[in-house]
């Protein structure tokens, strides 16, 4: 059974995802290359989502918030 490739850190995944989007938006790839890039983009998106979910869970644990607590919208100071 093949070993699964280790996921890149969040920052690297985001950087690669941004690069893939830019490349796809240029429209210079063949259909096959575009599909492979799209597939990689989906993998990277899932990696980012998992990393963000893990970070959110860690924050909840550190702040003592329960899982059923209602999330509050982020307020930016402008």
Automatic annotation (TrEMBL):
What GO biological process, any one, is recorded here? DNA catabolic process
Q: List the InterPro entries hit by this protein, alphabetically.
A: Exonuc_VII_S, Exonuc_VII_ssu_sf
The EC number(s) this enzyme carries: 3.1.11.6
Q: Catalytic activity, per the record?
A: Exonucleolytic cleavage in either 5'- to 3'- or 3'- to 5'-direction to yield nucleoside 5'-phosphates
Keyword field contains Ribosomal protein: no
UniProt subcellular location: Cytoplasm
User: What keywords is this UniProt entry annotated with?
Assistant: Cytoplasm, Exonuclease, Hydrolase, Nuclease
| GO MF, one example | exodeoxyribonuclease VII activity
The record's Pfam families line, in alphabetical order, gives:
Exonuc_VII_S
Which stretches are transmembrane? none
Q: Relate the assembly described in the record.
A: Heterooligomer composed of large and small subunits.
Task: Tell me the protein family, please.
Answer: Belongs to the XseB family.
This protein is called: Exodeoxyribonuclease 7 small subunit
Q: Which gene encodes it?
A: xseB
């Amino acid at each position: 059974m093949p070993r699964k490739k280790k996921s890149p850190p969040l920052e690297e995944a985001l950087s690669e995802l941004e690069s893939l989007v830019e490349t796809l938006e240029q429209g210079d790839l063949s259909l096959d290359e575009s599909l492979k890039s799209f597939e990689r983009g989906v993998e990277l998106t899932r990696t980012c989502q998992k990393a963000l979910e893990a970070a959110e869970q860690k924050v909840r644990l550190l702040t003592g918030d329960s899982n059923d607590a209602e999330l509050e919208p982020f307020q930016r100071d402008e």
